[in-house]
Amino acid sequence: MLKFDPKYFLYTVLLLIIEILIAVFVHDDIIRPYFGDVLVVVLIYCFIKSFLKLAVLPVAVFVLLFSFSIEFLQYLRIVEKLGLEHSKIARTVIGTSFAWTDIMCYIVGIIIVLISENYSQRKIKNR
């Protein structure tokens, strides 16, 4: 079950760099709020796959449910309830406001993961 996969780790690092660049330099109404949310689930998926040899679907479902859980905690205003409203890191990592559009972005991100993995597995089989 534990197995380091350098390919997924490289994807994780690249996605993390992109997410940081978006957070620091992009202040628009499309890339930062939507594309960033799509990418974050792909990032989490790649991070898990970097260290655990698990099937695609269970990891994808776990990441989606995890993302939904974080969004639900935002709905409950967990950052404020934990007294972390002044922590920029907590506000950035956990988030502060629930949005249905975030849920849709997470679903789109997981669909991209599933399509990419399906394509990759078909490509390997055809070799």
Descriptive notes:
The chain starts with 5 loop residues before the first helix and ends with a helix. The protein has one domain (6-125). It is built from six helices and no strands. The protein has helices at residues 6-25, 31-51, 56-75, 78-81, 88-93, 100-125. Helix 1 packs antiparallel against helix 2 (31-51) and helix 2 (31-51) crosses helix 6 (100-125). The relative contact order is 0.13. With 127 residues, it is mainly alpha-helical.
**How many structural domains does the protein architecture include?**
1
Which H/E pattern describes the elements? Answer: HHHHHH
| Structural Rg | 16 Å
Assembly state: single chain
User: How helical, in percent, are the residues?
Assistant: over 70%
Question: What's this, in brief?
Answer:
This protein is mainly alpha-helical.
Topology diagram in text:
Elements: H1 6-25, H2 31-51, H3 56-75, H4 78-81, H5 88-93, H6 100-125
Helix pairs in contact: 1-2, 2-3, 2-6, 3-6
Which key features would you list for this structure?
127 residues, mainly alpha
